[in-house]
Design a protein that fits this description.
With 173 residues, the protein is an alpha/beta fold. It contains 4 helices and 8 strands; from the N terminus they run ββαββαβαβαββ. The chain has a 4-stranded mixed beta sheet. It starts with 19 loop residues before the first strand and ends with a strand.
Length: 173
Amino acid sequence: MQGPSSKKGPRVNEDILDDKVRLIDETGENHGAVAIDKAITMAKAAGLDLVEISPNASPPVCKILDYGKYKYEAQKKASLARKKQKTVDVKEIKLRPGIEKHDYDVKMRSIDKFLTAGDKVKVTLRYRGREMAHQEIGMDVLNRVREQFAEVTKIEQMPKMEGRQMIMIIAPK
């Protein structure tokens, strides 16, 4: 058995270096273990290519098919998988300890919009000057946020101080 070839993708026709292969023809019928010469001749007779599907099997499994179409289908499938993939972003909302009701409501609508889009939200509460003496006020604001979104989120990072700011990360359930 030969190792993988230097080029990318499955080995095709003369690139297959094994003596025998397990052959599956274009209709899906299994011909069992066949000499490589006979397999390539059958593929040429059908006007198609002999493509190595499972190189690690013993003997390797080869299928008679149109290699160009096979590559195109594989490329389309990979493209579709990439398109459906969702990346989770971390959005940040900045608050202050003395935030007023309307400002708070506007920020909560933004958090709700981010969570429904499937993103995590980093809630940052920044203290300035003498606000550092009353950190419990900021903690109350973050607890209010946590309680408001309790049923739709999980707390990924509980509120903790980092320098002059308190940070909490929430993620959708």
